[in-house]
TrEMBL record:
Keywords: DNA-binding
GO molecular function, one term: DNA binding
Species per Swiss-Prot/TrEMBL record: Fictibacillus enclensis
DNA bind region: 33-52
Protein's GO biological process: regulation of DNA-templated transcription
Name listed for the protein in its UniProt record: TetR family transcriptional regulator
Database matches in Pfam families: TetR_N
Signal peptide residue numbers: none
Gene3D superfamilies reported in the protein's UniProt record: Homeodomain-like, Tetracycline Repressor, domain 2
Positions of the HTH tetR-type domain: 10-70
């Protein structure tokens, strides 16, 4: 993380981060302007580039910071002592709904990140998202009661099928929202996710 940036007072940090989120959400990476960001934040361009080398550095920092903020809250709310995998998955879905209501601007930014087509940053985010997906899936299955799954089940393949389903579901809804130029309908996403959770539970549990 950027220690120089965090030496700023909290109010100025928030203004810069909110201005950057607004610009990137409205314009996307390629068309977002640092001139607009500094104007919205009420700072000089020189000050922005004192803390961030360029637009790409700011964008990557913003993504990492937003992930850290949301996931810190997510981990605090998640009960990892729950041994029932599908109960844990259901509870996590409810927590995501709560976080969406708490951080609506951050989630809109995440949507833009997932659909970002700029070649300047696409590879950076592909590696970040791949790393995050791997670590979160490991954490998701930590400490679950494997005895509840069917004895004849190939558990690693079952886990992969579930992860691919939820990943594909997210991508499908993101693409639909992009094509229709609408905001993502989270109510439908979560409703369908819960339906898949119940389906997998019936298929994979004894």
């Amino acid at each position: 993380m950027n220690s120089k940036f965090f030496s700023l007072d909290d109010e100025k940090q928030i203004k810069i981060l909110n201005a950057a989120i607004k610009a990137y959400v409205q314009k996307g990476y390629d068309h977002a302007s640092t001139n607009e960001i500094v104007k919205e934040a009420g700072i000089s361009k020189g000050l922005l580039f004192h803390y961030f080398k360029n637009k790409k550095t700011l964008y990557l920092f913003l993504f990492d910071h937003c992930v850290e903020v949301v996931m810190e809250d997510f981990y605090k709310k998640t009960v990892m002592e729950e041994p029932d995998f599908f109960k844990r998955l259901h509870d996590m879905t409810l927590i995501k709904i709560e976080l969406l209501q708490t951080y609506p601007d951050i989630f809109r930014f995440f949507e833009k990140v997932m659909l970002e087509e700029s070649e300047q940053i696409r590879s950076d985010f592909q590696s970040r998202i791949k790393e995050f997906t791997a670590s979160s899936s490991t954490w998701l299955f930590d400490g679950i009661d494997h005895s509840r799954f069917r004895d004849d089940l190939d558990l690693p393949k079952a886990i992969k099928s579930m992860m691919w389903t939820f990943q594909g579901l997210s991508e499908e809804y993101l693409m639909k929202a992009k094509l229709k130029q609408q905001e993502l309908d989270y109510d439908k996403v979560f409703a369908e996710s819960k339906a898949y959770i119940e389906m997998f539970k019936q298929a994979f549990y004894k």
